TrEMBL record:
Compartmental location: Cell membrane
Region feature (Disordered): 1-22
Record-linked PANTHER family: RIBOFLAVIN TRANSPORTER RIBJ
Domain annotation Major facilitator superfamily (MFS) profile: ranges: 27-418
Protein name: MFS transporter
SUPFAM superfamilies linked: MFS general substrate transporter
Source organism phylogeny: Bacteria, Bacillati, Actinomycetota, Actinomycetes, Streptosporangiales
Compositionally biased spans, kind Low complexity: 1-16
Organism: Planobispora longispora
UniProt KW keywords: Membrane, Transmembrane, Transmembrane helix, Transport
Top-level division of the source organism's lineage: Bacteria
Length: 421
């Protein structure tokens, strides 16, 4: 860890580990509250969109691609908002930001239910992108990292619990949204989802989240954050993290979008293709459990690098072995084990090298690149598929995962003291 971050973390740890039983109990309440709000937040603000795509296209008289562009706008706006959101989280904590974001998200989904033109839809989803940057994983992780400052095992378990629960967002909200659309129509369904989200997220964020007493309140806190970030962005480790999680994020997003279509292209029945693609969600939980367990024995960067390398091999083999059921299952298993580990590995790597004082600022800067890649990569992959076929797309995915593996391996072998040079 850099000298600046080490000093800051040591002071923060001494200030935050003395909270005793009450502190631990409230930490559990915070994790439980965030697990609920992240599950509903991702379900309403992100996953439900796919259910509403075709009904909206029919009602607005637009093509599916034009409607789908709204979600891309939301993700890109979220990426642009990640750095300022991170700075706010470091300076003031998550309670105010996440409470305000919950209100904004609720209003935006209500507005979504009333759109009648593409311009209105795009404007609403730009607002949803702002709300997403305020309330989803980046902010939730920052709250957990701050609360469990100096408690590495507690932080790892909290992040694991949060991501495992929130990993069921699509499982819950895709069928729920479908039932609501079927019974009430897409506009009324959105009103119901907005009210569900607001009723849960606004009070939980406002009443449960709080900040611990920590050195971030000292007058020198802003200068400490600026020094840590300034040192980081001038050194290799930070940019290796950017490269790793941007490359893997784009590759994972591409597979998530195109896997069903590619498996059908390889000759598998649509039901089997959808079932195999659905394994990615289950395997992401398995990968997170595996990663968290191994972090007590092995470096987090090398664990992630190994799983990213496995993803690269799986993607490269899919065009060759994927025409058989066994081959397709094997490749999906190989890719799926690394599918969800980025979300729990990156916080560990940032805190381990740079400390917690500037965690959210650092996370926000990395998210600006990685989230943008998640938005842009599937569109680029569709273009590549038309020009070079699905095999070319899988080759690009394999290269992206290999870049991520090499970047994290290189990152691990750079001494922590380099971060302060």
């Amino acid at each position: 860890m850099s000298s600046t971050a080490a000093a800051t973390t040591g002071t923060a740890a001494s200030a935050t580990t003395g909270g005793g039983l009450h502190s631990r109990r409230h930490g559990v309440r915070i994790v439980a509250a965030l697990a609920i709000t992240q599950t509903i937040g991702y379900g309403v603000l992100y996953y439900a969109f796919s259910v509403f795509l075709l009904p909206m296209a029919a009602d607005l008289g637009a093509g599916a691609a034009q409607i789908a562009a709204a979600l891309t706008i939301s993700v890109l706006v979220s990426a642009l908002c990640a750095p300022p959101a991170g700075r706010h989280l470091d300076a003031r904590g998550g309670r105010g930001l996440m409470s305000a974001g919950s209100v904004l998200g609720t209003i935006a989904v209500l507005a979504w239910s009333q759109v009648h033109t593409l311009i209105q839809l795009y404007a609403v989803f730009a607002v949803i992108g702002v709300a997403s940057a305020m309330v989803l994983y980046q902010s939730a992780f920052a709250v957990i990292v701050a609360w469990f400052d100096g408690q590495a095992r507690g932080r790892a378990n909290a992040l694991l619990a949060l991501t495992v629960v929130a990993g069921f967002a699509s499982t819950i909200f895709l069928p729920l949204s479908g039932l609501l659309v079927e019974h009430f129509g897409w506009r009324q369904a959105l009103v119901i989802l907005a009210l569900v989200y607001g009723a849960a997220a606004i009070p939980l964020h406002a009443l449960v989240l709080r900040r611990r007493e920590r050195t971030a309140r000292a007058p020198a806190a802003a200068e400490q954050r600026a020094a840590i970030v300034g040192h980081a962005i001038r050194a290799r480790p930070f940019w290796l993290l950017v490269a790793a999680f941007t490359a893997n994020g784009g590759a994972a997003a591409t597979v998530a979008v195109l896997l069903v279509g590619y498996l059908i292209h390889l000759g598998h029945p649509p039901v089997l293709a959808a079932t195999l693609a659905g394994l990615l969600g289950v395997l992401s939980v398995t990968g997170r459990l595996l990663t968290t367990g191994l972090q007590t024995r092995l470096p987090a960067a090398l664990i992630a690098a190994a799983l990213f390398a496995l993803q690269s091999v799986a993607a490269a083999l899919l065009p060759l072995a994927g025409r058989t059921v066994a081959g397709a299952v094997g490749c999906v298993l190989g890719f799926g084990l690394g599918f969800g580990i980025a979300s729990i590995t990156l916080p560990h790597l940032i805190v381990d090298r740079y400390g917690t004082t500037a965690y959210a600022t650092m996370s926000g800067r990395i998210a600006m690149f990685s989230v943008a890649a998640k938005a842009a990569a599937p569109l680029g992959a569709l273009t590549l598929a038309q020009a070079a076929g699905y095999s070319g797309v899988m080759a690009a995915v394999a290269v992206g995962c290999a870049i991520a593996a090499v970047a994290l391996t290189t990152y691990h072998h750079i001494p922590f003291r380099e971060a302060s040079k």
